Amino acid sequence: MLRGLYGAAAGMVAQQNRQEMLSNNLANANTPGFKADQASLRSFPNMLLHAVDTQAMPGRRSYPIGELTTGVYLQERMPNFKQGDLVESRNATDIALLQGVLPENEDGREMALFYTIEHNEDEIRYSRNGNFTVDGEGFLTTAQGRYVLDVDGERIQVDNENFIVAPNGIVTNEAGAQVGQINVVVAEDPMLLVKEGDGLLRFTEEGELPSAVDDGEITYQLQQGFVERSNVDAGQTMTEMMTAYRAFEANQRVLQAYDQSLEKAVNEVGRIG
Fold it and tell me: What pLDDT score was predicted for residue 108?
């Protein structure tokens, strides 16, 4: 009976974690460049039960009864790097990254493109949020004030918001001078990137992601005056949240049934004995 308690409790924890993940996706449905998290429920390894015949001579023999499930858990969260819709904002500092033809990696998973962002002076992060701005010194930055880097790893000084970004990322300031080319990098395995908040992603391996600029196998465009919307499907997310809620309730009722059975076993059966 206690095994049933553990199984129902594991189901409740898994559904609660799933609900939290879906709630975070829904809360960021309007966050530019946000990539929805996804995960699946997996079961712990089953146990094979045997009945031991203690009367057997000269040794004991066992008879298989069947398998016993040991609960479920929420598999590791993984972002869905599918391209989000582009929406025109008519804001010169909004620059959407439109992915074109991308090759697949050895696992058959499509690669993904990102901007390079200066996190600290010696740290690099990656982002798909092109909702940029210009700081007081005229540098192109994220909304949180982190610098956008060019192909040489340098900050891009545009002076003011009257700059032009070509589809290949070359930036021209108001005076007509080229001030840099926005760097776009490619992740062969996007699952090696983890979220850190503020739309930033950290590469978990050594080194940095390679640049996709001038890579003949990769095509992309930078669209100035556009933002990439979140790829969260609000309707589908709401449906999945209701499903998770119902599954949590079902496990809760199972847990209550086991609790009532244990109460009778302790208070009533024990009294009869």
Answer: 72
Q: What DSSP designation does 234 have?
A: H
- The residues near 9 (Cβ < 8 Å, ≥ 6 apart) are 71, 251, 255
Q: Measured between alpha carbons, how far apart are the two ends of the chain, in Å?
A: 20
Beta strands in the chain (DSSP E): 37-38, 41-43, 47-53, 61-68, 72-74, 78-79, 86-88, 95-99, 112-120, 123-127, 133-134, 140-141, 164-165, 170-172, 178-181, 184-187, 193-197, 200-203, 220-224, 226-228
Tokens (6 digits) for 96? 């959407």
Supply the pTM of this predicted model. Answer: 0.79
pLDDT at 105 over 60: yes
Q: Which pairs with CB-CB distance under 8 Å and at least 24 residues apart come from 67-70?
A: 68/3, 69/7, 69/43, 69/44, 70/3, 70/6, 70/7, 70/10, 70/43, 70/44, 70/45, 70/46
